[in-house]
TrEMBL record:
<feature type="coiled-coil region">
    <location>
        <begin position="131"/>
        <end position="158"/>
    </location>
</feature>
<comment type="similarity">
    <text>Belongs to the PspA/Vipp/IM30 family.</text>
</comment>
<dbReference type="Pfam" id="PF04012">
    <property type="entry name" value="PspA_IM30"/>
</dbReference>
<protein>
    <submittedName>
        <fullName>Membrane protein</fullName>
    </submittedName>
</protein>
<dbReference type="InterPro" id="IPR007157">
    <property type="entry name" value="PspA_VIPP1"/>
</dbReference>
<keyword id="KW-0175">Coiled coil</keyword>
Length: 242
């Protein structure tokens, strides 16, 4: 179980986020899913690592208890041996033998506790090494989660900015299509054409009037010619009559 947890932590910690994003069809959705997956994996790993640490701490307590028991039974053996020596010195062999037996029993218990403690030492060292690696893996996972979250937030911000820019661009295109100044320009062109038509009509009317005046001038000239011709004829007739 410990190896499985460590393998998962190591695998997730080594994940190449940039490569995953490059191959994703929708990076934002993938980042959201990765953040959820990483968060779930971290919670699961934390629970498993916490359980592992608890088991190691219990084993350490058992080891310390065995060491303390060994020391305690050693002290009891010393005390019983000294008491036996006192009774033997006083000539009380029965009690001396009794306390020597107690000293031997204490020494046996001491040896058992020492053996237990000695047998636990290698396992404790290995378990503590695993715990350190698991803690390091969890720290790496949390670092990756922080990196993922930062990238996700950056991507969302960039996406929103791009969407806003697209909306502004579309609005500007719509504004160009319905630009009131362009309508005014078309209306101005229409007025200019109307004004040009009026000027043409005026010019045409003016040309027609000049032609009429020219006709009148020609008529007056003809009338003058006729009058002078009549006057000449009148003078000629008078001269003939005279």
């Amino acid at each position: 179980m410990k190896q499985s947890i460590f393998a998962r932590v190591a695998q997730l910690a080594k994940a190449n986020i940039n490569a995953l994003l490059d191959s994703a069809e929708d990076p934002q959705k993938m980042l959201d899913q990765m953040v959820r997956d990483y968060s779930a994996n971290i919670r699961e790993a934390e629970a498993a690592v916490a359980q592992t640490i608890g088991n190691v701490r219990m084993a350490e307590e058992d080891y310390r208890r065995a060491v303390n028991d060994a020391n305690t039974w050693g002290n009891k053996a010393i005390a019983a041996s000294r008491k036996a020596d006192e009774f033997r010195a006083a000539g009380n062999g029965v009690d001396a033998d009794k306390f020597d037996a107690l000293a031997k029993l204490a020494l046996q218990r001491q040896m058992t506790a020492e053996s237990m403690a000695k047998g636990q030492e290698p396992g404790l060292a290995a378990q503590n090494e695993i715990v350190d690696k698991l803690k390091g893996g969890l720290d790496q996972m949390k670092g990756k989660l922080h990196e993922l979250t930062a990238k996700r937030n950056e991507l969302v911000a960039r996406s929103r900015t791009a969407a806003a820019q697209s909306q502004v661009h579309d609005a500007l295109k719509s504004l160009d299509a319905g630009d009131p100044t362009s309508a005014i320009g078309r209306y101005e062109e229409r007025i200019r054409r109307q004004e040009a038509t009026v000027r043409g009509q005026q010019e045409l009317a003016s040309s027609s009037l000049d032609a009429q005046f020219a006709s009148l001038e020609d008529l007056g000239e003809q009338t003058e010619v006729e009058a002078r011709l009549a006057a000449l004829k009148s003078i000629d007739r008078k001269a003939i009559d005279d």
